[in-house]
Amino acid sequence: MLSSLKKIASNISSGDPKKKTIYHRTKKIRDALDRYIMKHSFIQDQAIFDPSILPWTRLLQNNWTLIREEALNIRAEDIPSLGEISPDHGRIAADRRWKSFFLEGYGYKREENRQRAPMTSSLIDQIPDVCTASFSVIEPGGHIPRHRGMTKGMLNCHLSLKTPQDRDNCWIQLEEGSHLHKLPWKEGDILLFDDTYNHEVWNNTNEERYILFVQVMRPCRPPASWLLKTFFFGVRHSRFVQDIRRNLDKRNA
Q1: Run of H or E residues at 191
Q2: CB 220, CB 37: distance < 8 Å
Q3: 154 Cβ partners below 8 Å, 6+ apart?
């Protein structure tokens, strides 16, 4: 399995001019990889988790008002849409009302953004095995279509910072078997979930939704933990990530 993952990492970072997404490169062996990860995972296979299973989530909750203040000082119109800076996100980022203010991604820190959110950045630096961290904004009417993440090797954390007053019309839906979890965000609360379960997001209100989005590696025993580090090394050097870096550099210039 480790040799297979090294091959994937090599392919991802090869700079193929066809610019296939990481998802498509790993699709054929993703299920086998996920089974291997779950065999060594410290936590079970389910869609939604109690945030307390990751102790650092308490650090974010204890400081959520400070994080919110920094986030709201960055106007939504000053934040690029995810589709603008990451074309490889394709159809799920076609709605330009989904915006991302990156603080960190696969080991690359966006210093110009971190200077605008120093407290948040210092808190993120205390979180182990961070893959990405950003302020994620969905503007009024925004919609993220049904999709799933690329591997069970990551968990998603949403710290809700600003939610529309009409909470019933701004929510995320996760599919767990035949059960649909319809979850509105609540300011100051954390939603921790496995994004390989299909999910979809709506903001059918006239207000913006702000969250702090943190993606971390799933806690696993070796050798699965080593496998994940190899995989993320490949992602870090992939065209997928490098294109985002270049587009952010151009925008900031």
Answers
A1: strand 190-193
A2: yes
A3: 131, 195, 215, 216, 217, 218
Number of domains the chain is built from: 1
The number of residues in the chain equals 253
Strand, coil or helix: 207: coil
AA identity, residue 66: L
One-character DSSP codes across 44-111: -S-SEE-GGGSTHHHHHHHTHHHHHHHHHTS-GGGSPBHHHH-GGGGGGG-STTEEEEEEEETTEE-H
Phi, psi of 129 (to 5 degrees): 60, 45
Question: Which tokens in the block code for residue 175?
Answer: 């599919």
Q: What is the DSSP letter of 206?
A: S
Q: Are 133 and 145 in contact (CB under 8 A)?
A: no
Tokens of residue 157, six digits: 């954390």
pLDDT tens per residue, range 176-209: 999 999 999 999 999 999 999 999 999 999 999 9
The single-letter DSSP state of residue 212 is E
Q: What is the pLDDT of residues 18-55, one digit of tens each?
A: 545 444 555 667 788 899 999 999 999 999 999 999 99
State the Cα–Cα distance between residues 3 and 230, nearest whole angstrom.
10
Q: Are 209 and 164 in contact (CB under 8 A)?
A: yes
The C-alpha atoms of residue 45 and residue 38 are separated, in whole angstroms, by 7
Range of the domain at 52: 2-252
CB-based contact 220:232 (threshold 8 Å): no
Angle, vertex CA 26, rays to CA 25 and CA 29, nearest 5: 140
Supply the CATH number for residue 53's domain: 2.60.120.330
